[in-house]
Amino acid sequence: MTPFPPHRPGYLISSGLKSVIGLVFVLLMFLGGPVGPAAASFADRVDYTLTNQSGQDFHGQQLAESSFAGAVAREADFSGADLHGSIFTQGSFAKSNFSGADLSDVLMDRVDMGGTNLRGAILSGVIASGSSFAGADITDADFSEALLDRSDQVSLCRTASGRNPVTGVDTRVSLDC
């Protein structure tokens, strides 16, 4: 019997199984009910799953624990929005404005965040494996305890600067630059 090869991301779980796990997670979030005292009720959640929200204005809205899974929201305005705990899995948010938004604890695996404005955004605890932040403005953003691909982390560190105005955390420190 041969031993397992050295750990490689995705070695033990196929991409098809990852998609199924992601779908199960989304279903559990909406059908399983709240999982903690701070969780919003089902009626409070907004579901934009698999919709086109390109160019829409969501600035300042309360969208905590909403689903944008598989959504296309290019050039949308999410500035100052409360999106904590939301699901963005496999969505496209290229060139959208998330300045000052609360994206803490958002599940955004395999998401296109290319060219987005993340100035002053809070992304603490975000899970962003397989996502792209190419060309994103992350000035004053807080990525504390975020799960990022190593290549994204290195790329983001090249332009990281500032201190988040809400949390007071230095962007470079939050990215472990």
Description:
This protein is an all-alpha fold and 177 residues long. The chain has a single domain (45-177), classed as E3 ubiquitin-protein ligase SopA (Pectate Lyase C-like). The chain has three helices and two strands; from the N terminus they run H-E-E-H-H. The protein has helices spanning 15-31, 150-159, 171-174; strands at residues 127-128, 147-148. A two-stranded parallel sheet has the order 1-2. 41% of the residues are buried.
Features:
177 residues, mainly alpha, Pectate Lyase C-like, two-stranded parallel sheet, 3 helices, disordered N terminus
Topology order in helix (H) and strand (E) letters: HEEHH
List the total number of helices.
3
In total, how many domains does the architecture comprise? Answer: 1
Average pLDDT figure: 83
Structural class: mainly alpha
- Superfamily at the CATH H level? E3 ubiquitin-protein ligase SopA
The count of strands amounts to 2
Give the CATH architecture.
3 Solenoid
What about the largest sheet?
2 strands, parallel
Helices and strands in order:
Elements: H1 15-31, E1 127-128, E2 147-148, H2 150-159, H3 171-174
Could you give a quick summary of the protein structure above?
The chain has three helices and two strands.
